C-alpha cells in the first residue's frame, strides 16, 4: 500500500482545484450572457417576455441546484446525446447563474429613478438607446458589488457537480479520502482551498460596496 | 426524440416520496429554528458581546460563508469522527444546516442591527433597561422586522441546499428520488417530479414565513 504524505494530498487537491476555477469562470461568463438576455426580456416592453423571464427566474431560484444538475445530466441524454459530466455541469450552472444574475441586475436597473426613463424618452430615445446611454451606465455602478458577491455562490455551486461525477475540488476530496483514510485532513484542506478562492471575492465585494458607497446612499 | 415519458411508477412510489418530503421538512424546520437562534446569538456577540469572542464569531461567519455546504457536511460527517465525534446521518445533516444558516443569518441580522440608529440604544438605557433588555426590545425586534424578507429567502435557500444531504445517506427527498430512479430507471421523470415537489415546498415555505412575519411583527407605531 502506498503512503500519502501531506504534500501528496495537497498537490492532488490543488491540481483538481484548477477545474473548479475553470468551471466557475465558464458558469459566470456564460451565466452573465444568458442573464443579460433575461434581464432585457424581464424589464422590456413585451408582456409575454416579462412573464416568460419571470417564470424562468422563479423556476431556477425555487428548485435545488442539485436537481437542475440531475435534470441536465439525464435530460440532455433524452435527445440522444451522450452527456459527459462536464457538459451537464456547465449547462446547469450557466442556467442557474443566469437566473440569479438577471434578478440581481433587475434590482439595480429598477433602483434608477423613473424620471431618468421619462427624461430620456422625452429626448426621443428608443428603448435600446435609453438602456445604452442613460440607464446602464448608472445601473452598472450599483451592480458591481452584488455581482462580485454572487460569484462566491457560483464557486461554491460548482462543488455540487462532484455529485454527477465531474472531477473538481470536491470530487478530488472524496477520491483522496478514499485512498488515504484521512477525511479530517483532506476535507479540512478542501475547505481551506475553497476559502482561499472565495474569501478574496467576498472581501472585494464588501470593499467595492463601501467604495462606490451604494448601500447607504439614502441615509 | 423518440423517448416515451412514463409516470406509471408514481403511484407505488408515493410512500417513499412522502417519507422523503417528511424528512426534508423536518430538517428545514429544525434547521431554521436553531439556525436563526444561533444567528441571533452571534449577532449579539458582534454588536455587544465580550471582546474576545468577537473575532471567533467573525472567523466562524467568514469560514462558513466562503466554503460550500457540501464540504461542511462532509467535514462534519466524515471528518469529525477522527476527533471521536460521531453522529447519525440525520444529526450531521441537521448540525450542518444549523451551522450554515447560523453564519448567514448572523450577517443578515447584523446588517439590520447596524441600520438601527445609535440613539435608540441610548434611549433604551435612559429608560433603565438592562443592556440585554435594550438589545432585545429596542434593537433586535425592529432589526428582525427590517431584515425579515432577506432572512426568509436565506431560509428557503438553505432548504433547497439541503438536497445535498442525500450524499451522506440522510434519507431526504433527494435520497428518495435517487432510490426511486435506481428502481424504475426513469431518471428524468423521477427528478422532474422531485424538482416540482421542491418548487412547491419552496413556495409554501416562503408563504409560511411571510405569514409568520405578519404575526410576529404587526404593523404598529414602529415605522
TrEMBL record, chain A:
Q: Which InterPro entries does the entry link to?
A: AA_ABC_transptr_permease_3TM, ArtM/GltK/GlnP/TcyL/YhdX-like, MetI-like, MetI-like_sf
Which ranges carry the ABC transmembrane type-1 domain? Answer: 17-205
What Gene3D superfamilies does the database record attribute to this sequence?
MetI-like
User: Where do transmembrane segments lie in this chain?
Assistant: 20-44, 56-79, 85-105, 184-202
Any one GO CC term of the record: ATP-binding cassette (ABC) transporter complex
Q: Where is it mainly found?
A: membrane
Where does the protein end up?
A: Cell inner membrane; Cell membrane
Keywords (alphabetical) are: Cell membrane, Membrane, Transmembrane, Transmembrane helix, Transport
Q: Does the keyword Transmembrane apply?
A: yes
Question: What is this entry's stated membrane topology?
Answer: Multi-pass membrane protein
Lineage, top-rank taxon, reads: Bacteria
Q: Which GO terms describe its biological process?
A: amino acid transport
- Keyword Transmembrane helix listed? The answer is yes
Q: Name one GO molecular function term.
A: transmembrane transporter activity
Q: Which SUPFAM superfamilies match?
A: MetI-like
What the record says about family reads:
Belongs to the binding-protein-dependent transport system permease family. HisMQ subfamily.
Q: Which NCBIfam families match?
A: HEQRo_perm_3TM
Q: What is this protein called?
A: Amino acid ABC transporter permease
Give the species this sequence originates from: Mesorhizobium temperatum
TrEMBL record, chain B:
Instruction: State the Gene Ontology terms under molecular function.
Output: transmembrane transporter activity
Using the UniProt record, give the first listed, main subcellular location: membrane
Cite a GO CC annotation.
ATP-binding cassette (ABC) transporter complex
Tell me the ranges covered by the ABC transmembrane type-1 domain, including all copies. Answer: 21-209
Q: What is this protein called?
A: Polar amino acid ABC transporter permease
Transmembrane parts of this sequence: 27-47, 67-85, 92-113, 125-144, 156-176, 196-217
Keywords assigned by UniProt, alphabetized: Cell membrane, Membrane, Transmembrane, Transmembrane helix, Transport
The family annotation for this protein states: Belongs to the binding-protein-dependent transport system permease family. HisMQ subfamily.
Keyword Transmembrane listed? The answer is yes
In the UniProt record, does the keyword Membrane occur?
yes
* Membrane topology category: Multi-pass membrane protein
One GO term under biological process is: amino acid transport
Amino acid at each position: 500500500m502506498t503512503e500519502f504524505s501531506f504534500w501528496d494530498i495537497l498537490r492532488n487537491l490543488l491540481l483538481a482545484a484548477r477545474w473548479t476555477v475553470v468551471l466557475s469562470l465558464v458558469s459566470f461568463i456564460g451565466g452573465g450572457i444568458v442573464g443579460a438576455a433575461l434581464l432585457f426580456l424581464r424589464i422590456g416592453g413585451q408582456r409575454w417576455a416579462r412573464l416568460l423571464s419571470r417564470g424562468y427566474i422563479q423556476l431556477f431560484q425555487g428548485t435545488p441546484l442539485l436537481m437542475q444538475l440531475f435534470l441536465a445530466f439525464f435530460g440532455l441524454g433524452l435527445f440522444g446525446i451522450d452527456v459527459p459530466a462536464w457538459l451537464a455541469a456547465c449547462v446547469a450552472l450557466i442556467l442557474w447563474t443566469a437566473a440569479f444574475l438577471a434578478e440581481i441586475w433587475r434590482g439595480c436597473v429598477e433602483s434608477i429613478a423613473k424620471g431618468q426613463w421619462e427624461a430620456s424618452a422625452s429626448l426621443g430615445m428608443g428603448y435600446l438607446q435609453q438602456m445604452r446611454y442613460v440607464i446602464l451606465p448608472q445601473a452598472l455602478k450599483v451592480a458591481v458589488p452584488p455581482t462580485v458577491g454572487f460569484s462566491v455562490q457560483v464557486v461554491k455551486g460548482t462543488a455540487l457537480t462532484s455529485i454527477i461525477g465531474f472531477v473538481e475540488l470536491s470530487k478530488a476530496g472524496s477520491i483522496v479520502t478514499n485512498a488515504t483514510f484521512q477525511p479530517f485532513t483532506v476535507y479540512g484542506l478542501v475547505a481551506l482551498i475553497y476559502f482561499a478562492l472565495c474569501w478574496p471575492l467576498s472581501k472585494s465585494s464588501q470593499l467595492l460596496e463601501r467604495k462606490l458607497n451604494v448601500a447607504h446612499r439614502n441615509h | 426524440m423518440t423517448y416515451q415519458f412514463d409516470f406509471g411508477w408514481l403511484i407505488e412510489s408515493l410512500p417513499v416520496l412522502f417519507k422523503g418530503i417528511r424528512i426534508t421538512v423536518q430538517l428545514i424546520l429544525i434547521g431554521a429554528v436553531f439556525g436563526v437562534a444561533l444567528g441571533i446569538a452571534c449577532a449579539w456577540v458582534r454588536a455587544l458581546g465580550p471582546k474576545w469572542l468577537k473575532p471567533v464569531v467573525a472567523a466562524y461567519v467568514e469560514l462558513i460563508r466562503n466554503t460550500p455546504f457540501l464540504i461542511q457536511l462532509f467535514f462534519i460527517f466524515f471528518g469529525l469522527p477522527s476527533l471521536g465525534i460521531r453522529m447519525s446521518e440525520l444529526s450531521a445533516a441537521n448540525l450542518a444546516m444549523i451551522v450554515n444558516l447560523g453564519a448567514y443569518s448572523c450577517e443578515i441580522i447584523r446588517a439590520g442591527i447596524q441600520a438601527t440608529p445609535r440613539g435608540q440604544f441610548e434611549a433604551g438605557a435612559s429608560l433603565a433597561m438592562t443592556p440585554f433588555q435594550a438589545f432585545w426590545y429596542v434593537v433586535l425586534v425592529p432589526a428582525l422586522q427590517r431584515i425579515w424578507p432577506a432572512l426568509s429567502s436565506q431560509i428557503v435557500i438553505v432548504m433547497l441546499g439541503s438536497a445535498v444531504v442525500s450524499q451522506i445517506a440522510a434519507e431526504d427527498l433527494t435520497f428518495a428520488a435517487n432510490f426511486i430512479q435506481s428502481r424504475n430507471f426513469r431518471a428524468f421523470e423521477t427528478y422532474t417530479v422531485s424538482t416540482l415537489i421542491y418548487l412547491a415546498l419552496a413556495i409554501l415555505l416562503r408563504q409560511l414565513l411571510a405569514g409568520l412575519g405578519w404575526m410576529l411583527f404587526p404593523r404598529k407605531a414602529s415605522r
